[in-house]
């Protein structure tokens, strides 16, 4: 069995190469390179140097021109670099060409993200989806000197000179595994859809926190629900959904879910990989779109999240925009400008607690606006109905009379079917 951790330690020096596309500003390319730095450090890969290549026109063979190719090769010899990581997606041919010329491992942002996801996925569906993404990514790259990021980190010479027969055998083996994983995924997804249908029948409203990775979603979940879900200051700290009960007041509660963080240039292969997590956003009664306002790139992060929500069909859900980490913001003018652009937005700090009570009140108001106010008389022998109404958290007033239990409250459409026989006549 290949030891991923052991081989990762063998990588001594990585060179990160950012690409400034013709329509991209220098600042934008620098922020993207900084993000790649965080991703790389998440894998415990040491970084020896970083550089940004200003690209006028991409070349089919190496992406960059011959002059820049030679400059990079000279740099890797000078600093004993044993892996080059590009922030731009490389084609299989470009990776092969780079590895042939540089004699070291060359990978891209996609491969780094896939490797992070493969380590941190825990649910069966996420594990299968990441496995599928890895195999589909690797299949056209089998002729590379290093066939997998895990094996690449040895920094050695790689497995060269394999015959065509072995290559074809490897391709058949991977295609067979892809086919088997897809079959297994169909069953897992079918099971998830059954669970989703059950969840939709539950009377308790659901709220999902969505946003760019490292926006503070897990910290907000912990602050609101007094729980201890993993909250770390790093990209993709959590991949699988975490759900906790949130009490809004004495009679109302909701289920609050923390979802996977989004990121720019997320490999499309991995969008499906996290439908299980993002499913919580699709079916939520309310979305909290959380933004780290202290990050200089927060506007790009905001647009990235909106785009992903659109891709998964969650952009039509009622959404509350919440700017987090206001305690870290030095320039107060930014908040003044955002209050004009987003009149209904909230400004909070999950760390200090600022604005959290207002957030709970707004969540309650938004959810109640979707509910129907109903007056009921429940017979004394139907405490199963009363119990279900208490579970929903929608009861506002309850008294016991001779003719039954009189209840007034706000209840979801999913409950109207069982409540109709007990509705009081006007």
Report on this structure.
It is a single chain. The chain is 45% helix and 18% strand. The termini are far apart. 34% of the residues are buried. The protein is α/β, with parallel strands linked by helices and 426 residues long. The chain is built from 16 helices and 13 strands. The N terminus is likely disordered. It is elongated and about 90 Å long.
Fraction of residues in H or I helices:
40-55%
Radius of gyration, Cα only, in angstroms?
26 Å
Count of DSSP E strands? 13
Level-2 CATH architecture of the largest domain: 3-Layer(aba) Sandwich
Quick rundown:
This protein has 426 residues and is an alpha/beta fold.
Please write out the topology:
Layout: H1 4-8, E1 14-20, H2 26-42, E2 47-54, H3 66-78, E3 83-86, H4 92-102, E4 105-108, H5 109-120, H6 124-138, H7 149-152, H8 164-201, E5 206-211, H9 217-225, E6 242-247, E7 253-258, H10 269-273, H11 275-283, E8 286-292, H12 298-311, E9 319-324, H13 332-341, E10 346-347, H14 356-369, E11 372-378, H15 383-392, E12 395-401, E13 404-411, H16 413-419
Parallel strand pairs: 1-2, 1-3, 3-4, 5-7, 5-8, 8-9, 9-10
Antiparallel strand pairs: 6-7, 11-13, 12-13
């Amino acid at each position: 069995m290949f030891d991923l951790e052991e081989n990762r330690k063998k990588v001594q020096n990585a060179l990160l190469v950012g690409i400034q596309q013709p329509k991209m500003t220098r600042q934008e390319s620098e922020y993207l390179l900084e993000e790649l730095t965080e991703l790389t450090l998440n894998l415990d890969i040491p970084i020896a140097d970083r550089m940004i290549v200003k690209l006028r026109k991409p070349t089919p063979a190496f992406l960059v021109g011959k002059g820049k190719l030679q400059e990079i090769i000279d740099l890797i010899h000078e600093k004993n670099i044993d892996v080059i990581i590009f922030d731009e997606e490389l084609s299989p041919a470009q990776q092969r060409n780079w590895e042939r010329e540089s004699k070291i491992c060359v990978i891209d942002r996609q491969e780094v993200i896939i490797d992070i996801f493969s380590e941190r996925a825990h649910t069966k569906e996420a594990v299968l989806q990441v496995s599928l993404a890895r195999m589909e990514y690797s299949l056209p790259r089998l002729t590379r000197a290093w066939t997998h990021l895990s094996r690449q980190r040895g920094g050695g010479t790689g497995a060269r000179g394999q015959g065509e027969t072995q290559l074809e055998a490897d391709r058949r083996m991977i295609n067979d595994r892809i086919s088997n994983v897809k079959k297994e995924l169909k069953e897992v997804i079918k099971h998830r859809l059954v669970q989703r249908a059950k969840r939709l029948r539950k009377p308790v409203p659901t709220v999902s926190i969505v946003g760019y990775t490292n926006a503070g979603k897990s910290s907000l979940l912990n602050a609101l629900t007094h729980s201890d879900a993993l909250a770390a200051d790093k990209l993709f700290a959590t991949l699988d959904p975490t759900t906790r009960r949130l009490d809004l007041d004495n009679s109302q509660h909701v289920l609050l879910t923390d979802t996977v963080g989004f990121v720019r240039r997320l490999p499309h292969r991995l969008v499906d990989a996290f439908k299980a997590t993002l499913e919580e956003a699709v079916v939520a009664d309310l979305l909290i779109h959380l933004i780290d306002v202290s990050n200089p790139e927060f506007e790009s992060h905001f647009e990235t999240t909106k785009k992903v929500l659109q891709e998964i069909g969650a952009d039509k859900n009622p959404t509350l925009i919440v700017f987090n980490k206001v305690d870290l913001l030095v320039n107060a003018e930014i908040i003044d400008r955002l209050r004009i652009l987003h009149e209904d937005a909230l400004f909070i700090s999950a760390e200090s607690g600022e604005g959290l009570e207002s957030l709970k009140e707004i969540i309650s108001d938004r959810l109640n606006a979707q509910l129907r106010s109903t007056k009921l008389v429940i017979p004394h022998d139907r405490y199963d109905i009363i119990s279900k109404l208490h579970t929903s958290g929608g009861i506002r007033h309850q008294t016991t009379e001779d003719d039954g239990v009189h209840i007034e409250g706000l209840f979801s459409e999913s409950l109207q079917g069982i409540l109709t026989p007990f509705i009081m006549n006007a």
